[in-house]
Amino acid sequence: MQWPMMPRARLGSVAVKCTTATVGLLLMAAVTVMATADQEPTQTATTSRGKILMYPYVSLGKNSHIVNFVRLAKILRSRGYHVHLLIGADADAGSWDELDQIFDVVHLYPSANRSDIDIAKVTLEWSSMSSYQFVLWITDNLLSQCEALLSRPSLLVDMQRERYDLLFTDFVNNCGRIVSDYLNIPTIAYSPAGFISDKALFPDLPSFIPVSPMSQLEPGKMTFSKRIENTLEYVAMNLFWFPQWFGTFQSLREKYQINASLDVRMSFLSALVLVRSDFVLDYPRPVMPNVVTIEGVFFDDPKPLPHDIATFVDGAGSDGIIVVCFGTMIGHLDRRRNEMYARVLARFPQRVVWRVAGMKPASLGNNTLAVDWLPQNDLLRHANTRLFVSHCGLSSTMEAAHNAVPVVAMPMCTDGFQNALKLTRAGMAFSLDFKTLTEDSLESAIWEVLNDQRYKRNAIRVAALLNDTLVPPRDKFLYYVDYVIRHGGVAHWQADVLQTMNNWQLFNFDMAALGLIVLMIALFIAGGVFWLSIKFMWQCWLAPKPINKEHAH
């Protein structure tokens, strides 16, 4: 069959039209692709990537641990994860209105947390506790919380039916170890308080690492006697601390027959451990392959300050402001200390923003704005901020360092002592003894940091180092969450050798003992040979000499 021939002119016209149409289609396709690319982050944020169960350590109401988990939950939800929360119903944190807005589902269980405890009083009592007393206190508190959960097996069954992709729990929450084994799902253990003694994951070497978070020893500056003190504390922790810390939870596991054959100490060996730390400030130390340091994940662009605080801060002029805050839990000190702080702060030309919950001190100066709550990180980022007076919790420490704000450090409890040492070692803080603090020493310290520009220069240097990262910290955090879910955990990074080896093997004491025995045997043999040689020579020298007969005649 022959197709009719088309005139040459008309053929050219059709070709032009086809070409025009083709170009138009290609342009439309390109625009569509570009539009799709522009919309990709939005689609990613709304697409479900899986379900995560968060199980934080909640005790004594609102604390830095639950605050960290709330912030991380917001980041995870922005990536498209469904985030559920497991929390005790009696904890103060469980009554926050924001929890229902931040988490997709909140699972509550009746807990043993007491709402009538004076949190500030208890926290301040920690400053006078020994490390062992503090461990006993924390263990008892955690144990009651854990039993409240384990005594309700139906709740654990419900958790299992949810088929979570990941358990995200607090490293200090030993009950999280039991829940992780029960659910048998990939686990991330997050430590918002930095490195905590754990032989299997980040071992302490007492020759140069302070073994207690409440220790005031500094690596590299420990004398021989201080190293003896640190080593004795290391021995005490291994003989008393760890058995008490893990043994009570192992007994609880066996009591309720929840994977009773498993050892609590081994539960996090195949988990990814995220430690809120940065070696710019932290001390060098060995860590296992499944331990990842993460810092700066919470540092977003500063938000506008509340109107009353903004007006007060912006009107400070060239003198600037001093920020005073003692963390999430300590909203107020005792009345005597509050009045002393008020009198001292009133003497400075700087304006002061001070978090004081409850009754305000009578000695409050005209330069001081006392508030029940303050946006600490946003205040520290403000250009008018000159100084931060802090108890040196880890969040406060890192916010001051990231924002290049010099610090007057007054550690009161837990890891504050080590954090204050780190800032002092970096040259951006002046440290005071909270228990022996006087008006004169406080005033002198504040003047020292305000007037000596070395503190500010060192703070700027530390901030530059902390903020110089290969990838944004938030992307690093999300990458590791995705990684654990993608690969079903990090068992391939598991290094249980430190858990299975005793200290004699770990530090080669057995090899040293064998070498000593061999040396002693060698010395004994050498000594015996030497003694026999001397004896033989002595006998030869004393033996009667034969008479020469020729000379005799």
Short note summarizing the structure:
The protein is an alpha/beta fold. Helices cover 49% and strands 11% of the residues.
What does this structure look like?
The structure is a single chain. By secondary structure, the protein is α/β, with parallel strands linked by helices. It folds into 2 domains: 51-298 and 473-500, Rossmann fold (3-Layer(aba) Sandwich); 307-466, Glycogen Phosphorylase B (Rossmann fold, 3-Layer(aba) Sandwich). Helices cover 49% and strands 11% of the residues. It is built from 20 helices and 13 strands. Mean pLDDT is 82; it is low at 1-46.
Question: What number is the mean pLDDT?
Answer: 82
Helix content: 40-55%
Indicate the multimeric state. single chain
Question: What gross morphology would you assign?
Answer: globular
Distance N terminus to C terminus?
154 Å
Family: Belongs to the UDP-glycosyltransferase family.
GO molecular function: UDP-glycosyltransferase activity
Transmembrane segments: 511-532
Signal peptide: 1-37
Task: Give keywords.
about 550 residues, alpha/beta, Rossmann fold, 6-stranded parallel beta sheet, 20 helices, 13 strands, about 50% helix, about 10% strand, globular, membrane, transmembrane, UDP_glucos_trans, signal
